[in-house]
Amino acid sequence: MRAVVYRETGPSSVLTLVERDLPEPGPGEVRVRLVRAGVNPTDWKFRAGMMSGYDEVTPGQDGAGVVDAVGAGVTGLGTGDRVWLVLAQHGRAYGTAAEYTVQPADRVVPLPDGADFDLGASLGVPAVTAHRALTASEFGPARLGPGALAGRVVLVAGGAGAVGNAAIQLARWSGATVITTVSGPEKAALASSAGAHHTVDYTQGDTSARILELAPDGVDIAVEVAPAQNIGIDLDVVKTHGLVSIYANNGGDEMTMPLRAAFGKNLRFQFLILYTLDDGLLRAALEDVAAAVEAGALRVGEAAGVPLHHYPLAATAAAHDAVEGGAVGKVLIDVADG
């Protein structure tokens, strides 16, 4: 099989297309013939130097394809099943930038017939991150779904990004009113296509005041991508007993804030990353995301505010560069014909 690998961290030029033996699934594992692989910021960051410990790595946490072999003890999945993958390269050397990947069965999720492989490969990191950002239970699986956020107002910072777009779609599916901040008319159009009820251009005027014009009582949840820059806005607009969910460090690695302002509102802050997420919370997210896909509530493509950028497997380095360069939408690797 063909696979993209790197043997040392560094720029995208360390990625090489090679031939490797077809891997065999062990007990509790399945082998997936990949059709699409999704590229996320973590892929290029790991490749650039954040990850080590393996002699050789195939990048890629997300992907979609068809099960073609099943190991002993696997139930609920069979050969020929269309599936999508989550955390495919977490804790293992070989991810989704390859024609085949072997994965634990619990990281392989059935893909409904109405969903194409482009959507399947776009779920994983963005959709599961968005799910966690919209929930906050530490002691049981918090759930999304129709009516779960009815009457709530959700603020999504950077709604034109992959996680932001997924948060808009999941929040809207769950009944919330969604406000998102954007950096201009083009991204406002994308966020509106995703389902945002209101967009606020943070480059123009007083962002906090404009959000509070739309939600005079404040917002219940802020999904935050740039806390170092936006924490003042979050403190202004999140209501008492509200939640600030921080999933990225865009714009700076350190955040400072006036503590009394947070005390005064009894705010909850949640910092999240998928790689250490409790298994029960991950399973709840996968079930809800799958339900949203089944309902047609999660979509990709221009009409859904997620322009798609396709690269062949041999151009995985260019795909990494596109994500690192801030490509708007979703970057996908075409591993095989759909």
Automatic annotation (TrEMBL):
Matching SMART domains: PKS_ER (SM00829)
Pfam families linked: ADH_N, ADH_zinc_N
Domain Enoyl reductase (ER) intervals: 10-333
Keyword Manganese tagged: no
Swiss-Prot/TrEMBL keywords: NADP
Protein name, UniProt field: NADPH:quinone reductase
Transmembrane stretches, start-end: none
Gene3D superfamilies: Medium-chain alcohol dehydrogenases, catalytic domain (3.90.180.10), NAD(P)-binding Rossmann-like Domain (3.40.50.720)
Repeat found in the keyword field: no
CDD domains, per the entry: zeta_crystallin
